[in-house]
Structure formats: structure tokens, C-alpha cells
Amino acid sequence: MKLFIPGPVDVRKDLLKYMSKPLIGHRTREISDIQKRIQKNLRKIMKTNNPVVLLTGSGTSAMESSLCSLVKKKVAVFSIGAFGNRFYDIAKAHSLDVDKVFFGFGNHIEPKIFKEKLQSGLYDVITVTHNETSTGIMNDLKTLSKIWKQYPDVLVIVDSISSFGGFDLPVDDLGIDVLLTATQKSLGLPPGIAIMSLSEKVLKRLEEVEERSYYLSLRRIYKKHKENYQYPTTPNISLMMALDYQLDYIVNKEGIDNRFKRHKILANYTREWAKKHFKLFAEEKYASQTVTTIVNTKNLDLDKLSVNLKKKGYLFAHGYGPMKNKTFRIGHMADRTLKDLKKYIKEIEKSW
Ligand code: PMP
Asked: For residue 182, how far is its CA from the centre of ligand 1 (angstroms)?
């Protein structure tokens, strides 16, 4: 079954094989060496010198870890869809003081409103979803970063779960305090590890915030990483080994820029096709580079389409939540080739 959903994604056979290697201990020099290499390559992709730590858990664990470890005063959640809203739910679950600024499904973060909220001086943490997987909208971080850089006391958490590895996110240039992501999207691995880069300001804040969680405590995680490149609890060792292997592939075999370019080609191809036969859900300037949401202007029976595609060996993605039958999504991320994407799209055409 080929997964054309916006994550989890197809994982290359060599990677799957690599994951079946015999285990090593989590308190060994080998595991520290693996973590060092992982950090080195993640820093190259993120274009940062900040420490990069892992957390055994899905992407949500990094969302929760960063929120519960960093908010001292109040957090503003800037949401454009289901995953932005999740930050709000997490903040509530931890009884944090939180405001949600919701721009609506299909919209992007409006810089003017963003600036007004930051100007209020109410917040010491904000969250921004870079790529909202539920709608296929990518926020414009270059523009937003010009605003948040004017408020150096506010820590900026960016969720790049479904874009990291498929889109250039230069952490230092953008001034991102926590860039968080997960393995199962554009990085092309199975789910199970979340990744976070931590700025100087974050490291300082970690010392100032009361501990609200044991497992998710960033202070605890960073302390051990700093000590000997290990983790407080047993990490997902097989997946760490695969991450190490895949990052080497991205940095030294495919090449970081080539990977971003390939994602752009896949996105452009999908968009052109969508515009020819349907309509893009996103305003094109904000269309995602890793998942395209298409308005079902032909009123196709998407359940039937999904069943037909399944018979051909493809997993299809409906729209998200209330947009389930009005839109559909095509994931084009990780190690997907243009050839495979074209084949999938041909199959969709045959089914209507
Ligand atoms: N944020 C975004 C943008 C996502 O796409 C997802 C997963 N679809 C999540 C958060 C949640 O990640 P996970 O399912 O790995 O916990």
C-alpha cells in the first residue's frame, strides 16, 4: 500500500531493514555517538547551532513538552486549523493561562493581528503552526519572524511536524526558539520520535519554570543530553538508529537543497493538476509544500474513490473534519518521487 496521506509516509526499504538491526544499550558510548551525529546533521538541516534533543513519543509529545516546560506567564496560540487548536487544548490540560487566536480553517496567520497580539505584552510564549496539515496551509514565517524578533522576551515555538525535511526552515535566521517536529512526515521515517531545537533563551527559561511534568520535562531531557548525549528514559533505540541513517542520507546523499527542491517540484505538479481539474483550497501563496488540499468541485464520491484507490494499492486522504467530503488531500513528502506521484494522480483520474 502506497501512502498518499499527509503522514505517516512510505519508508524506504533500506531504512526498514536498518531498523531491524540488533539493539544496543541506552547507556553506552555508541548511543551517545549516535545522538551526537543526529544533532550534527539536524543542525545542518535546521541551520542552527542550538542544541537539538529528541523525545520518544509522537509529535504531540514535543508540543506538550515545550508548552509545559516554558510558559511562565501566559501563552498565545496562533491557530489556523486542527493542529494549532491542539496547542490550545494542551495548554488547557496543563491549566496554563492561554489565549487562542484562531484565523479559521483555510486561512493563514494575518501579520497585522499577530503584531497587535504581541504588542499587548501579555505573553511570554507563543505557538505558530508552520504547516497546518488539516488544511494544507503554510504560514509565512519570514514575514512573521520580522514581527516576533521585535519581542525578544517572547519565546517562539514553531510546529514544523509536517514540513520539516521538506521545506527550508533556517532556525537561527528566523529566530525560532523551539523548532519541533517528528519522524513520520517529511523526514520519511516511522512515527515514534519527536525532535526539538532549543535556543539560548529557552535554556535560560527552563531554569525558571516550575516542573509540570516528569516524562515531558524539557529541563530533565536537556540536562541529560548536555551531560553525555543520552536521555533520562530509554529512547526508541531502533528508530534513533534509523534517524541517524536517514539524516546521513539527507545531508550527504540526496543533499539538503535537493530535497527541498524535490518537494517543491512535487507540490507544483500537484497544484497545477489541481487547478486544471478542480480548485486549490489554499490561496496559492500559502499553499503547503508537503500536502495539497483540493476542493472537490466535481462532487466526486470520495468514499468510492478511496475504495477504488485502495484496490489499486493506494491510501487516499479525505479532507479533514468538517471538510471531509468537500475537499481531499494529497501528501507529497519525504522520499516520494515525481514518478510515483504522477502514477497516483493518473489512478485518481481513472476513477472518476
Ligand atoms: N501538528 C501537525 C502540523 C501535524 O501534522 C500533526 C500530525 N498530523 C501533529 C501536530 C500531531 O503529531 P502526532 O500525531 O505525531 O502526535
From this structure: 8
Angle between helices 59-70 and 82-93 (to 10 degrees): 50
Classified as helix, coil or strand, 294 is strand
Ligand 1 centroid distance, CA of 158 (Å): 12
Residue 134 CA, closest ligand 1 atom number? 5
Domains belonging to the chain, first-starting first, are 13-253 (3.40.640.10), 255-351 (3.90.1150.10)
The tally of CA atoms less than 13 A away on the side-chain side of residue 223 is 9
Instruction: Measure the CA–CA gap between 230 and 218, rounded to whole angstroms.
Output: 13
Report pLDDT digits (tens) over 36-60. 999 999 999 999 999 999 999 999 9
Give dist(CA 266, CA 248) in Å, integer.
Answer: 22
Helix %, strand %, coil % of the chain (to 5) = 45, 15, 40
Rounded distance, CA 240 to CA 34, Å?
A: 8
Estimate to the nearest angstrom the gap between the alpha carbon of 301 and the chain centroid.
Answer: 30
pLDDT in tens, 227-282: 999 999 999 999 999 999 999 999 999 999 999 999 999 999 999 999 999 999 99
DSSP 23: P
**Counting beta carbons within 10 angstroms of the beta carbon of residue 315, is it exposed (0 to 12), middle (13 to 18) or buried (19 or more)?**
middle
- Cell for 333? 513528502
Pocket lined around ligand 1, Cβ cut-off 6 Å: 7, 58-60, 83, 129, 131, 133, 159, 161-162, 182, 191
The set of residues, in sequence order, having a beta carbon less than 8 Å from that of 254 and lying 6+ positions away, is 262
pTM of the model: 0.98
Q: Relative to the CA of 133, which ligand 1 atom is closest? A: 5
In the reported structure, the alpha carbon of residue 168 is separated from the centroid of ligand 1 by a whole-number distance in angstroms of 19
Dihedral Cα 310, 184, 178, 293, nearest 10 deg? -20
